[in-house]
Specification:
Two copies of one chain form a homodimer. Chain A is mainly α and about 180 residues long. Chain A has two domains: about 1-80, Arc Repressor Mutant, subunit A, CATH 1.10.10; about 90-170. Chain A contains seven helices and two strands; from the N terminus they run H-H-H-E-E-H-H-H-H. Chain A has a two-stranded antiparallel ribbon. The longest helix of chain A is centred in the last third of the chain and has 33 residues, at about 140-170. The first copy, chain A, is elongated. The interface between A and B is large, with 70 and 71 residues. Chain A binds a DNA duplex (30 and 30 nucleotides) through helix 2 and helix 3.
Chain lengths: ~180, ~180
Amino acid sequence: MSLRHALLGLLDTGPASGYDLMRTFNSTLSAVWPATQSQVYTDLNRLAEAGQIRVAAEGPRGRKSYEITAAGREELRHWLLEVAPDGYRRNDVLLRVFLLGAVSPSEAREFLRQRHAISGRHRAALEERDAGTDWDDDPLSVYGRLTLEWGKRFMTMQQEWSAWALEQLEKAPPHT
Amino acid sequence: MSLRHALLGLLDTGPASGYDLMRTFNSTLSAVWPATQSQVYTDLNRLAEAGQIRVAAEGPRGRKSYEITAAGREELRHWLLEVAPDGYRRNDVLLRVFLLGAVSPSEAREFLRQRHAISGRHRAALEERDAGTDWDDDPLSVYGRLTLEWGKRFMTMQQEWSAWALEQLEKAPPHT
DNA sequence: CTCCCACGTTCCAGTATTGACACGTCGCGG
DNA sequence: CCGCGACGTGTCAATACTGGAACGTGGGAG
């Protein structure tokens, strides 16, 4: 459902083709809302049918440059401010943790050690990306920086949590 | 894909009916991996077809008590320890933040204030749930406590982040 | 003893998402 | 001037997920 809103949001910053949008999804947005190429194109067509975007210009190899319409802006605004977010749902790492009783305590500890290491790596990668980007003061840059910071804090939290969880398990292993 | 593994994991702790599993999903597990009733029942049938669970007993009103089989335990173990988790993907709150340039700076700030408040409420609710549970030392209790702690830390992180983000916006509002 | 609610399962239509395949074209490096 | 890699779009089948409806039953409260 939200892919269409993501597309509206991107088009709100200026016209773009499906291909352009695709690339944005595969780079910046993939961590927050992944999408495949087929979905992007089908949803663009649906948005056009719904009159929320329109083909502004056709370019070289069948390229269609889309732009957002007034109705699209309306819908985007509504979704941003008035539709209650789902929030976080569906976390397959946490699901595994919950079910870790199915393996031995030492395997469970190893699992947590792995998570600790992985969170650290992700955190470092985000740190690097932050440092390697020259942030501007345009909206996408400002709000992009906020989401990146969220990611860094998230990874830090996970790292601290897994260290803590490991301690807990060493202190009081589950009684079978 | 993971729903089936969640079911296997729950059945690994003892036999249960679809109805029982449903209830577990609607209470404990809903925050980590939501599932509707129809999905639970269809996946139970598929697991049975695949020979990973089996009907252990039939009860009163057509009740089927399922138990995990050796093949099921094998699959569960494999998924837990050898399949790389997706980790965190798809966050519609963060997606909104990223696209917040579509509304006015003051509306964006209001959005963050809302998130701050909501995170606080969720955190309090988890805190309360923690205090109101008498934790045992059986696996589901031990690992359940770890996931609950993750939730608390997540909410705390979000609260701190939104306060920080708000500050950033006040300090340097996006330039249109 | 009766009624109602919780127990219990199944089916279905619609949408979302994935992954792959198919197909055509501009443009530039060699 | 030729080929190939990037540009660019579309379609399909399969699976995941949602929301709702339908249907039947046992057991305990009154």
